[in-house]
Structure formats: C-alpha cells, structure tokens
Amino acid sequence: MTRPLPSDGQQRPAGTQPLSSERERLKVARKWAYLVRRATYIPLPDDEIERRFLGLLDRLLDALCGDQPTESASEVGAELVRLHCVGKTSLQCTVDVLASALLAPTEGRLADRLPERVGKLLGALASGYVDAIRSSIVEQQDTLNQALFAAVRASQHELEASEAQLDEIFVSSPSGIAVTGPDGQFVRTNPALHRILDRTASEVAGGNLYEFAHETDRGLLRDGYRDLRDGKIDRLRSRPRFTTKDGDLSQVTLTASLLREAHGRTGQYVTIVADDAELALLQNRLRHQLLHDLLTGLPNRQFFGTHLEHVLHRSNSATLYHVDLDGLSFVTDGLGRKAGDSLLRTVADRLRSVVAGESAMVARFESDKFGILVERSATGPDAATMVARINETLSEPVYVDGVGLAVTASFGVVEDLSRTAEPAELLRSADLAMRRAKSAGPGRWERYDPVLDVPAREALGLVAAMPGAWESGELAVGYEPLVRLADGELAGVEARLRWEHPELGVLPEQRYLDLAERTALIGPLGAWLVERGWQDKAAGGGADLSLLVPLTPNQLSDPGLAERIRRILDDAALPAERLWLGLPTRALLGTGHEAADNAHVLAELGIGVVLYDFGATPGELVLLEEFPVRAVRLDSRLVWRAVGEESIAVAGADYLIALLRRAGIVVVAGGLETSEQARRWQRAGVELGTGPLLTGDAGPATDLESLIGGGRAGRGY
C-alpha cells in the first residue's frame, strides 16, 4: 500500500479552480501514476513516482489559472518523457485522467472558459510530449551518426582493416548513408538510402545528391555543403525534401560531415539521411490516441466537444443525444471484462450503423456512456424515431463465447441547440435529461426540460459543494424536540443535519440528503452527527433525555460505523442507553449483510435501536424478533393520511401500534404538522412525536442547551 504523500503546504482557494483541496489532488495524482506505471516501466520507487506526478499536477493547475498556460503544460509533457513515461498508452492515460479531473464543475473566473482552457492545456501537454520524443529520437540518431562518422574517419587511416566493418554498417543501418565527392557525386550508397529515394541501386549509381532534392531545396543544400567545406560549420543539419520516382515528396533529416585528406585538402563528404515518415507516423498515432477511445476507436469526449462547438458555429439544426447503456454492469460482473469490452465494441459499431446515413458523430465518453450529435436534415428522423432505431438495433443479441448478449439504452436529448450555448453546458443538460429518463426505467428517453432539470442541476451542485460546506462550518447539527404526546413534555431530542447556506439560507434535508447518499461523504457524516450530538448532550445538560440520531442506509452499511460509535461512547461519561440510533428498515430488509451486522453490534453496545419508516414494507415484523428494538418511528405517509381518512392502511397501523405497545416498544410519530394529527395518534397509542408542529417554522435548533432550557420543550398543541 502506498504511503500518504506529504503536504506541499499550499492551500488552494475553493471555487477558483478544479481540485482545490489537497485530498482531491493526491487522489488524482495517485490514479495518474498508477495508470502510467501499468503502461511502462519507470525506474523510480512508487513514493517518488507519486510525488513527481503530484508536482506535475500542481504545475498544470497553476498553469490553468495563469494567463499563458501552454508553456508550463508543454514543459510537463516533456517531463513525462524524461521520466520514461513513453508506453503505448501513457499519453492516452494522462489525457483521460487529467481531462476528467480538470473538467470537474467549478466556480469563479475559470468556470466560463474552463473547457477551452483545459483543451489548450492538454494540447500543449501533448505537443511538449511529442517534441520531447522527437528530441529523444534525434539525440539517438546523433549518437549513431557520430559513431558512423568515427567509423568512416577511422577507415581513412586503416582502410583495409575497417572495410568489413564499414560494409556491415552500410548494409544494416536503418538510415541512408552516402559518401559523396565535393560536387555531390555519389561515391558509395547503402540500401536504406535507395529505399528513401525510392530508387534501385543502379538508378542511384553515378547520380548526384542534389538532383534528388526538390528544386526549391537544392540551393540551400548546396550552400550548406559549401559552408561545411569552408569550415564555417563543423556539421551540416538540414531537412530537405527529396522527390520520389512517382513525383511525391519525402521529408528527410540530413546530417553531413567532411572528411579531409592529408595536408588539409578537401576530401569527401559522409551524409546520413533519416526518413521522417516514421516520426510522422508516431505523431499521427499520438494525435489519434489523444482524440479517440482506445477500445472502440470512436472519438472521445474532447474530440466530441470540439466537433459540437464547430457545429454550433455553423447552425443550430442539430440534436444531441447522451446515451447510457442499461445493464452493462451485469455483463462485466457476470461474464468478465473481456465480454463487456466485446459488447462495447459491438455497441459502437451498431451506433455508427444507425446514423450512417446522417451527418453525425458518435463518441464514447466513458465506461457505458456515449454521445451522438446528428445534424438534422429534411429527411432525417426525429428524436423518437432515432431512439427507437437505436434500441431496436442494440436489443439484437451478439454472441460472445457462445452467450447471446444485448442491452438497451437510456437517452437524454437536447434539440434546437442554441448557437450561443457552451458545448459543456449542452452536454451537462443532456446528461441531466438522461438521468431523469434512467430513473423512469430502462430503454426510456427524455428531452431536456429546464423546468424539470434546473432543480436537479441545483441539487447536484449542492451535493458537490457539501465537502467544502462541511469544512467551512456551514454544516451543523440541529435538534428537534421529541415530545410526549400525552402531556407535551420533552422526552428527548432528535439530531438532524442542518445546512445554513450563505446565500440560500437553511436548506431542507430533502434538497440534498438523498443525492448525498450516492457520495463517499455520507458515511463519515453519520458518525460525525452522532459524535457532535453526544458531545452537545454532555455539555448542554439534559442527561435524562434520550438523543435520537437517524442514519441513512449507506451510513448504516458503513464498515467503520460500529467502531466509531464504540470510541464515541468510550470518550463520554454518559450511559449508552440514552443514545438512540434510527435505522432505516429498508436497509435492514435488503440483501446486503453490512447493515444487519452493524445493527447487531450497535445493539450489543447497549444503544437503543429505533426502526425508522416502520409500517411501509411487508415483512418488517420479523425485525422485531431479530433485533432488541427500543422504539419504532411510523412511516410519515401513515401520519399524514390519518386525519379524516380511516383507510385500511390507517386501520392496520392502529392494530400494529397496539401490538407494539404490548411488546413494550415505544411508538414515535414523525412529521406531525397539525394538532389534529397529534391527538389522533395519541389516542391510537403513539407515545412520542416530532415534526413542524413541535419545532415551529424555524426548523431544527442549532443549540441544544437553548432547546432544553429555552422553552421549546413542552409547547402545547
């Protein structure tokens, strides 16, 4: 396991650039180093490699914020070559990692032009990378050339002894070699030169070097040899164009040295010619890797974004599709990565075939996500027809190792693209529409709708900002009174997450908590909520009151939860039975074992187990036998339906409450909004209640001491 890297001491202000925290930068640097190490051997210890990559990442981040980012990015590309990161996919890995990290949503002065700046930054990095490889190749050629020159000079003094060695060099060298007279006449040539000139040995014999050069380059070439003869230069380096037999032009790198005879008289020239075609092929291959997905050969997100920008400049008659495959994970998890990769290649081919008759581009963004841009025509299909064609094509099985595989796709569609819109913003809109379609079920599609998607965009933005809000103190613990319905007295408090946004004020939990459940932040937040509540209870009085802390499904499934709770209890001189943890019933009834295992360990610590959202799911009664349940909190939908509606569900809840009371289990009604609701459930046997009726419009209080002693307890209803 790699040890943590030391801090560089830099504190990057949040909202001004991507990767503003040290933790994010370390994560990206380690992923970058890991992927590059898989592609090539780097002769350094792992710690040193990660430290170097972290330094390169910091230079790129500084360049991204600077006025001229390309120079520093080019130097980073060259540094990768110096670190021996020259594997087949080193540059592709670098671009994939950096593009994903640097294009993360951000605020501040970078936000408006971030995709353009990142594109320029990565382009400059690739350019520096290619130039460094070119220089490395040239240095290797120079080394070989010097060895050849030394061998040729030695042959002048010991011609007979070195003739066999010189012949071997001439025959086997990949570079063209020619010995010419003072006027450029060929004295001797090798097979590699014949190949470069596209001539046979007989066609070259007796010829002149200058006559094979393009007519516009001959004068410069003659001047160079003359300067070499006159001693103005020690070695001639030139990049003339030679004309092939078919009239095509071939760019070469030419290096010449003068062999002087005795008494300083002018002798012959040794000329070495290297074909630049291989270097050009390397450059083209690197450029292709930079802009295409290696697995499918489709354009990648960067190429697609540039193409989208060009299309927008031409017209707005285009439709953008964000495509997300349904069920690919079942293939990769069940049959292996090889089967998944084979299916992805087939999907790429089929997507291309569906739009083959249109002016369109298909790209692979990442994993199971694709993008399609179709420039509309008078005869082109509408969005519904296009989606139906794609799903019909994808649903046809493809056989991999004898197993028939097929998928469907969910689509987010943006039509009538605005010419003034940013490509990144359009892609983001299509992604939001796709998420809405996917939530409705597989094989669905949705158009981008600002009315529906803007709230989702705002919620996603809030979740993205949660780590910074936690660090800056915007996230706090709020407390709601847990009141006895019989007499209105305070029996305990319920700790809730409270987010006081500097611009939006106190945010309701439903705006961010469900989405936060998908992030890694939610686990530590659960333990922090318990710890802060327990500390506030110890400091704020109310030792006889119970502290109820509700947990989300992912918090309950956190492998480190039980150990964190154990340490919290050990550090505080309060009885464990005063801590009640609200456990979601749907998590305990799920197929995973982590939630149930945590619940058993917590119960063994003496903590009060409270089942949340009870009465909404069949099979919940079995949980009363499996766990030592202290209390249950009725599902809020039952509470809201109680007044004026004696339905089967409400009647069943009354019967359930009676059973729970006979078993000695406390029943809690949450979300109480009216006095009628409170009185109705108190008559049914509910002992404790929470909700707006008891907290008021201000919501949860942030000060437990003021809640206990300030009169918020015991309010009438």
UniProtKB/TrEMBL annotation:
Positions of transmembrane segments: none
GGDEF domain: residues covered: 316-450
InterPro entries: Biofilm_reg_signaling (IPR052155), EAL_dom (IPR001633), EAL_sf (IPR035919), GGDEF_dom (IPR000160), Nucleotide_cyclase (IPR029787), PAS (IPR000014), PAS-like_dom_sf (IPR035965), PAS_4 (IPR013656)
Coiled coil: none
Domain PAS: 162-232
Biased composition annotated in UniProt, kind: Polar residues: 8-20
PROSITE patterns: EAL (PS50883), GGDEF (PS50887), PAS (PS50112)
Residues in EAL domain copies: 459-712
Region annotation Disordered: where it falls in the sequence: 1-22
Name of this chain's protein: EAL domain-containing protein
